[in-house]
Every structure is written in structure tokens, then in C-alpha cells.
Amino acid sequence: MTHPFNASSAYCPGPVSRRGFMRMGLAGFASLSLPGVMRLRAESPTTESPKQKTAVIMVWQPGGCSHIDTYDPKPNAPLEYRGPFSAIPTKVPGMHFTELLPKQAAIADKFTVLRSMRQNAGGHPAGSMQLLSGDSDTRDKPAPRLPDWMSVANYLRSQDGPRTNPLPLYAGVNPPTNYTGPAYLGDAYSPFAVTGDPNNPSFSVPNIGVSDPRELTRLERRASLRQKLDTLERAFDKAGELQALDEFEMQAMTLLTNPKTKVAFDLSQEDEKTRDRYGRNAWGQQLLLARRLVEAGVEILTTSLHGPLCGRVNNWDDHAVNHHVFDAMRFRAQAYDQAVSALIEDIHERGLHERVLVVVTGEFGRTPKVNYQPSTGAGNASAAAGTKQPGRDHWPRAFSNIWAGGGIETGRFIGATDSKGEDSIDRICKPGDFLATIYHHLGIDGRKVFIKDLNGRPTPIVDHGAPIPELIS
Predict the structure, then answer these.
(1) Cα Rg for the chain, rounded, in angstroms?
(2) CA nearest to 371, candidates 310, 315, 322, 425
């Protein structure tokens, strides 16, 4: 059972203003700016924070996954709605998936399907911002107005004081960053981003766990130089933001040199059977790395299932102009089904299912009714340019996501859509409910926490919504 973050008596002030940070990737952690990032976090006034270090892995389907072709089949609907895939029984009586997900169907008792998600933004930017930050605006914007839940959780949990675990609190393995981010919290609360294909034999995380004596000497010299430069900056530091760097340099050096950091990112530490179980492809190894990182102490982990495994346009945006929707679903189904089922089984077998919550979702579903348009180009899951092919467009009125671990009761489905999958009609859940549920698992009461925006205005992290009762422990 998690213990809600109690902030009813005071607002959480925003972070101390500072020079803008680029999104923190691997280079950022090896660069001179790391101590500044650590200092920024520590300078934010502390407040009561959760003691139980629960964690969340969010697996993101960028572009939006067809609910009808996966978790919410409609075998009795007209052909132009139901598509070509047969419905198959799962391990949960009365719950069916499509034939594309046999491995997940076989372990359906280990997760819960939410079939009645709804939001009201039809574009990828606005849809992503609604679900991940609670922004109610239906217009697509070039940058988020509100921080996403990942950055908020990172900010709030960073108030605990110096972190004893050398691993970052918030990490992303090819994380979703196109339409999300920390907004007014500042880039110090962006993810520690690992990019690339973890299945590639040459994949590595640079500058982590440095052990070469010459490299250590170089890092120490850079840290010393940073201190000297920071001393010069103090003459212009009217706000008094710069503090002694000793503690932060030590934390930076620990991150870079502690063997635990290198081991956590090293997939060769896994036995061959485990790697095979997840799938010897980018998605399988991404989710395996995600499990390794949360097991080692990362508390917020995001990973995006995009790239060549999706088909020609590298995402789940299965308009007819992009993909033959049914060929695209077939093309990506095996890797997706195998990786997700392996992750869910693994967190149970390794005893992580009480502490670690896994959420798999995209920003919306796809149109229940199939349409036909000319392809704009040939490629995986797409016919030659000009060929008419089936597609499904954006559909925020009804979509599904799955939840596992987190101590929740599994082996059931929540809510329902109508006979054609067009509208959520039972136990309708909206972005505020989605966010409040994740925050609850992290020990944060989303209804009581406010963070000041750039104008100093206290802004709730959940404007409307409450934790979904069936998805909390």
C-alpha cells in the first residue's frame, strides 16, 4: 500500500530559476553541467515525500494503437469495423483479444485491461499532452504548457535530499519526447535519456561506470575547472543561486565511476535465455533494460516503441496514407506481444510486482471504421505510392491501455465501448484519472499538490480526476 504525498497545507514552489539546460542525455551526465543539475534539484525547498520507493515503467505507443485490433475486438461488428483479425480467448474468462496477441492472452491474469479511456484531442501533440500532463487544450502546440507526470514525479521525489543510489531517478530508454517535457519545471527534470538500439552488439552507454585511471583523472580535472568557472560566475549571481559544489561534484563523480551504474545498463549481464525471452530486437531489449534499471533503483522509466519495427513511418499512426493498417499491425505484433508479455511475467517472477507498476498506452485509439486512401510511399506495411489501402485514423473517444504490477488486482478488464468500438460507454476514464492513478502508485496525492508555474501561479498537477479504484492497491 502506498502512502499519499501530503501537500494539503502548502504549495510546492517551482524550481530555482537557472540557465536553460538541454534535455539531459548521456552527454549531459558526463559533462560539466551535471553538478549544476544536481544543485538545482537540491536548491528547491524540501517538502514531505513518499518513503516507499515505488516505481513506474510506462511503455509508450506513439501515434496511437488500434484498440479494435488488439485489446477490444468487435467480432460481431460489420467487416468495415471489425477488421480481419479473429478474437481469441485469454486466460481470463470472458475477456478476448485479437489473434495478434497470443502471448499476452496467455498471461492475461497478470494484468488488467482498461477499455474505456477517453480524451478529446484529435492531434498527436494535444493528445499526448492531455494524457501525460492533463492539459485540457485540444489545440496542437509546439511545446507543452504543463509538465508531464514523469517530470512532476521526478521533481517531487527529488525533494528527498541527496540520492544515495548512483542511478538517475528518472530515465528514458528511447523515451517519448516529441510532445512531452518538463515545461515550467525546467530541463533539469527531463529524463536521463538512453538512445539507440539495445539489441545492436555495439550498443553501449558512454561515460557510465568509468574505471580507466586516465579517464578518472580527466574527469577530476574537469570538475576542478567547473568549480573555478563557477567561482567567476558568482560575481554576477545577484539571485545567490550558486552554492558550494563539493557535494554535487561528489554525486556526479559517483554516477560516472560507481560500478553499479555500468552494471545496471549492461545487458550482457543477463543470461541468453532471458534476452531471447524478451526478443532479440530493439523493443525486446528496451523493455529488458527498463526492467534492469527499475530493479537497480530507477523510479520513473519511460520507453517508446517506435522505429523500424513499426513499419514504414516508424510509429503507430496507421492512416492509409502511411500504412496498410492491418499489414502494419501484423508486422509489429510479434515483437510487441513478446516484449510486453516478457516484461509483465518478469516483474512477477522477480518479485517486483508490488513495487513496480507497468503501464502500456498510446495517446489515443484508431477510428473504428476503416477507410481507404492512396499510399504515399512503399515500405514495410505500405504498398507502392498511389495504391489504395486500408487505414484507421485518430480516435480519442475510446481506446485501451493495460496495467500490470503495482500491487493491483489483475486478471480483469475495466469499462467497455459500444458494439462498434466508437465510444466508451461504461466506467469512462479520462486523462485526470489516468494521471491520478499513476501518482497514487508513486505516493503522490494529485488532488492536493500544486506547483508554481513561471508566473508564480499555483497549478494543480491533476486538475480533474481521481485514482481509478480498480487500479490502485
Answers:
(1) 22
(2) 322
